[in-house]
Design goal:
homodimer, alpha+beta, 6 helices, 48% helix
């Protein structure tokens, strides 16, 4: 089964905020933004249990923040930066410019 | 008992985003911003049950988004705009500039 992704026009600002409003998900977004490319899901926040991450991938995907691409048994993740910038101009830049955004989970996710 | 309010320095960006990432709470923030002054809690989103609102006041207060002032049996609410602007410059302006922010709950909260 292919995971469902909302079209850019379907994004809801409050859902995006709720998705970004969690230390682990904020950390994922910061790391994806830094990498700037599609990333194997196991490499992004390696200290977080897979079962916990499954929930976070869903919240991020359903709000439009990330795109998931399954390949065999692996899952690859991309930040939907273009779509987010088109819908909510400046939001991602503003959050990523905040030093604290996505850092609270660093102790948890460091290995 | 006086409700606890975080000092501006204690605000966590992810907590603020989570607080703003809900249709009713976004609606409250938009309305408080429009009114620009302390407002009786019963006047802000009059269609929402009081028991539901109690939860939302707490989430908004504990993240730093609003200030509550009890007066007798009434509760007065202010948006902590100065504190939010000081900690996360541009965030509130950006969200309020989005036409959709805080409008999703309008059908629910209209009386």
């Amino acid at each position: 089964m292919t995971a469902l992704h909302p079209a850019r026009e379907q994004f809801q600002l409050e859902e995006v905020l709720a998705a970004l409003g969690h230390p682990i998900r904020a950390s994922i977004v910061r790391k994806l933004s830094s990498s700037g490319k599609e990333t194997f899901c196991g490499e992004i926040v390696p200290g977080v249990p897979k079962s916990t991450l499954t929930h976070h991938w869903r919240v991020l995907r359903e709000s439009g923040v990330i795109r998931q691409r399954p390949s065999g048994r692996k899952l690859y993740i991309t930040l939907r930066r273009d779509d987010l910038d088109a819908r909510f101009p400046g939001l991602l830049d503003l959050l990523l410019s905040e030093e604290s955004f996505g850092r609270a989970a660093d102790q948890v996710t460091a290995v």
